[in-house]
Specification:
By secondary structure, this protein is α+β, with helices and mostly antiparallel strands. Helices cover 29% and strands 28% of the residues. It has two domains: 8-281, Ribosomal Protein S5, domain 2 (2-Layer Sandwich); 326-460, Mannose-Binding Protein A, subunit A (Mannose-Binding Protein A, Chain A), CATH 3.10.100.10. Strands 1, 2, 3, 4, 5 and 6 form a six-stranded mixed beta sheet that branches. A four-stranded antiparallel beta sheet has the order 12-11-13-14, with helices on both faces. Strands 15-16-22-17 form a four-stranded antiparallel beta sheet, sandwiched between helices. Helix 3 (148-162) runs parallel beside helix 5 (249-280). The longest helix has 32 residues, at 249-280. The radius of gyration is 25 Å and the shape is flat. The two termini are 26 Å apart. GO terms for molecular function: carbohydrate binding; mRNA 3'-UTR AU-rich region binding.
Length: 462
């Protein structure tokens, strides 16, 4: 899991704040950060949701496929979980760094969600012992700033609520065999009852108290945490301790009582937001459950304001140091454009391999944000790589065909697409990545992500 380094002075400051029920960001010990929920965000799935909790961002997609029931429960369907820890979330997930965390998250999700008490698995059965619906739940960690379990559980519940499964019609052929037909009518579908689907509440022991929705800084000050899955009725369905420290029985009891109270209070606004999202249809915007007990800005103490000033001063010093290092190690080898540098990397790779290569070097795939940047990048490619070469750009439309996003998941503001009809992006589903060409003067075109192209990485120096 992503970690941060905290000095002893910072630990003392954070622990004293928690003791007085005043955290660094102004929240109380039982308050969540601001949460935003979007549903139906991935076009090629049967259900999807994106949840942002503070700076933690989770994307969940669900795909329903017909499979064979498990022998022990022939009259039930089941769920399969896969968690992908993207290197975009934190550099610690590069390569195989996120594999262990992904497995841990998947195992926890199995225990919490894949049982008949959470979801009516019998409703997923098509023909006992022969056919059933299998829900493949893919979880992608887009950004990591603590409290992954809670954010993922909310995203899974929202995606399950958004899932629509085609109605199945079974008929017999002339030889007595069974034929399965799926309804083509998008409104002739089955919806899942998510009322009993629990949410996970993670409580971290910081000093002599425990906090809900801990940030990475607070997590670094915690000796142990307790994961508690709670239904809308306040029933605890699963408890799990994480962390190397120990918890005494009294602390466990207090944490469980807090988890029940907080978890029960979370369900009602969550369901209200999901129902509102669905009723709005295409007009919906990002929604946030109403939070209780949020402290006003006036609750910040002079000590917090003083700490923020010191942090700002440190950030300025770090920015200057980063710019100096970038100028020394990157810009002298490549080219400096405004507050970023471009540097060519030897060799050709696929889009995902090229993206990982840039991450390993501390940057991202080049993404011009203005015509001036695009022209200078084109000149650099023309001189350093070759006039007929193409380089990968840090944009793609893998999530939704025709909707191009940068590597932060934001909409692309500047484009320079080739005007030729056969180069217009969004028309070919096999071309989901973009390249800048050295031949037609820096024009962009869409390309198959598996193709091997040249690499130019971008490094921000602020």
């Amino acid at each position: 899991m992503a970690t941060v380094q905290v000095s002893e002075a910072e630990k003392v400051y954070i622990m004293h704040g928690v003791r007085d029920d005043l955290r660094v960001d102004g929240r109380g010990c039982e308050d969540y950060r601001h949460m935003e929920i979007e549903t139906d965000v991935v076009s090629n799935t049967d259900g999807s949701a994106k949840v942002t909790l503070g700076h933690t961002a989770i994307l969940v997609g669900i795909k329903a496929e017909i499979g064979k029931p498990k022998p022990m429960v022939p009259d039930e369907g089941y769920l399969e979980f896969f968690v992908d820890c993207s290197a975009n979330a934190t550099p610690e997930f590069e390569g195989r760094g996120g594999e262990e965390l992904g497995t841990e998250l998947s195992n926890t999700l199995y225990k919490v969600f894949n049982n008949r008490n959470s979801i009516d698995l019998r409703a997923l059965c098509i023909s006992p012992g022969e056919h059933c619906w299998v829900l493949y739940v893919d979880v992608l960690l887009l950004q990591c700033d603590g409290n992954l379990f809670d954010a993922i559980s909310v995203a899974v519940k929202a995606a399950l609520f958004n899932t629509r499964i085609s109605k199945v019609h079974i008929s017999e052929d002339e030889e007595g065999g069974k034929e399965i037909e799926l309804s083509d009518d998008p409104y002739d579908c089955m919806r899942l009852n998510v009322e009993n689907v629990p949410c996970i509440v993670t409580l971290c022991k910081v000093g002599h108290r425990h906090v809900v929705d801990a940030t990475l800084l607070e997590k670094a000050c915690s000796v142990a945490s307790l994961l508690i899955s709670v239904t809308h009725r306040g029933t605890i369905t699963c408890v799990r301790k994480v962390g190397g420290g120990s918890l005494d029985p009294e602390s466990i009891f207090q944490m469980m009582e807090t988890g029940k109270r907080v978890g029960k209070a979370l369900h009602a606004p969550l369901m209200e937001v999901l129902q509102k999202e669905e009723s709005l249809g295409d007009k919906r915007q990002k929604s946030a459950p109403k939070k209780k007990n949020v402290r006003k800005e006036s609750a910040k103490t002079d000590a917090i304001e003083e700490l923020q000033k010191k942090i700002k001063a440190l950030e300025d010093d770090v920015s200057q140091l980063k710019e100096h290092q970038a100028l020394q190690s990157v810009c002298l080898k490549g080219i400096k454009v405004h507050r970023k540098c471009f540097l060519a990397i030897t060799g050709k790779k696929s889009f995902h391999e090229a993206s990982e290569e840039c991450f390993l070097n501390g940057g991202t795939l080049s993404t011009p944000e203005s015509s001036e940047e695009n022209d200078q990048l084109y000149d650099y490619v023309h001189k350093s790589i070759g006039q007929d070469e193409k380089i990968w750009l840090g944009i793609n439309d893998l999530v939704t065909e025709g909707k191009w996003l940068d590597q932060r998941g934001s909409d692309v503001q500047y484009t320079n697409w080739e005007t030729m009809a056969n180069r217009k992006p969004g028309g070919d589903r096999s071309r989901n990545c973009a390249v800048l060409s050295g031949a037609p003067k820096g024009k962009w075109s869409d390309e198959n992500c598996r193709a091997e192209k040249a690499i130019v990485c971008e490094f921000n120096i602020v």
